[in-house]
Amino acid sequence: MSVSPANEGGRWRALPLLGLKAGKLVVTVAITFLGLMVVTFLIGRVVPVDPVLAVVGDRASKSTYDAAYIALGLDKPLYYQFWIYLKQALSGDLGMSVLTKKPIVEDIKRVFPATLELATCGIIIGTLVGVPLGIWGAVRQGRLPDQVIRVVGLVGYSAPIFWLGLLGLLVFYAKLQWVAGPGRIDIAYEYNFTQTTGILLLDTAMQGQWDAFRNVVAHLALPATLLGYFSMAYISRMTRSFMLAELGQEYITAARVKGVPEWRIIWVHALRNAAVPLVTVIALSYAGLLEGSVLTETVFAWPGLGQYLTNSLQNADMNAVLGGTLVIGIIFVGLNLLSDLLYTVLDPRVRRRT
What we know:
The chain is mainly alpha-helical. It has helices at 5-46, 51-56, 62-71, 78-90, 104-139, 144-158, 161-175, 187-190, 200-206, 210-247, 250-257, 262-292, 294-299, 305-314, 318-346, 348-353. It is globular.
């Protein structure tokens, strides 16, 4: 099959445009990352915590304090300190943790899978429940189901999550004993398998340790459901708003006049268009769970990134706090970028404009 010269020329003319788009994307990500680094660096300099005392202790002599002050580079100008911080971060060196005496990168690699597992289960629950509830509320606008869904969402959106966690432990663990208690796994099962990925659901399932798998599920059920409820409240609310906007469009009226079945109008035509902005909502909700599960991890003694940051902050380990904050910022930027790319894939109109 031959290609016409016109088509071949069109493809070649499209290459500079694709290169320009890729260049704009790279520049945008670089500027965002640089801004994130600046904010993170400045936070470490304005907090009322002396990083030298965190290293040498408050009983160190003045000579020891001065030596540590110079070794940390705090005697250098602020712009030079930032340049050193930027070079180290770009090379993957976030410094040493005062609390664990280990590189912060290793600490984050150790604790992040727990947060990833918890947040992923939470966003799956929130999406699978929130999207249908939001659609149902939009279809039944102003009726009893809509009112109930809005009240349930309002409670989940406004109630403190640590209070819900404590209440859940009291009812479902202490009283009813439907779920396991705090932590990720009971110590009786902890050494029955090897943690290869750090995500215990995957590790236990891949190694066929089904007793340990059920124990992991029992520990995960309550905190993941609470995070899912929290995200469901926001996702259902936004889904309802997007669906109401689409159901009021002229193409929906035209489809009804043509006799298109109502289920097809809702689940195919309206939901297809509402799914485009909904992708961004779900992605940002996921990022919020990854960085906002601090209180949940504290209540449930979940050894993830949130608890790591809490312990580091309580012990004035600012290197660990700033390293974790930087990782959270990168997650937000990455998921926001991913949602923009999915937005482009799902909506042809965006592809034509970009």
